Amino acid sequence: MAKRIMVVEDNDLNRKLFCDVLKAQGFEVDPIADGNAVLAAAREITPDLIIMDIQLPGVSGVDLIEAAKKEASLQNIPVLAVTAFAAKGDEDKIREAGAAGYLSKPVSIIPFMNAVKELLPD
């Protein structure tokens, strides 16, 4: 059965790129553009991995990661944070919130897929 990945990204082009690359690799993909819908969608979908943009309108991806890690039904889902927000100390803050992986934008396909595969062992 294909692994299911939830892609949280408000930028249409980035979301489409991530989803297309993941689908081409055989993953089932659930795109989410609205950060406010993330936790409810994750509860319903129970993905194997969440790819989380950090800068979302109206809500911080860091706050969403922290909230997910406090919920029993979501806490074991690995989160790959993807962000253009790459200042010194940001990666530490994002990992402390509970992200299992971190990539800064712009994202290249090979490092992106390597990060996904690292968090989703067969």
Structural class assignment = alpha/beta
Instruction: Give the ordered list of helices and strands.
Output: EHEHEEEHEHEH
Approximately how much helix is present in the residues? 40-55%
Low-pLDDT residue intervals, each spanning 5 or more residues: none
Radius of gyration: 13 Å
SS summary, helix count: 5
Percent of residues in beta strands? 15-25%
Would you count the extended β strands for me?
7
- Write down the overall mean pLDDT: 95
Shape: globular
| End-to-end CA span | 11 Å
Biggest sheet, spatial arrangement of strands: 2-1-3-6-7
Biggest beta sheet summary:
5 strands, parallel
Characterize the structure shown.
The radius of gyration is 13 Å and the shape is globular. The chain is 40% helix and 23% strand. The model has no long low-confidence stretch (mean pLDDT 95). The N and C termini lie close together (11 Å). It has five helices and seven strands. With 122 residues, it is α/β, with parallel strands linked by helices.
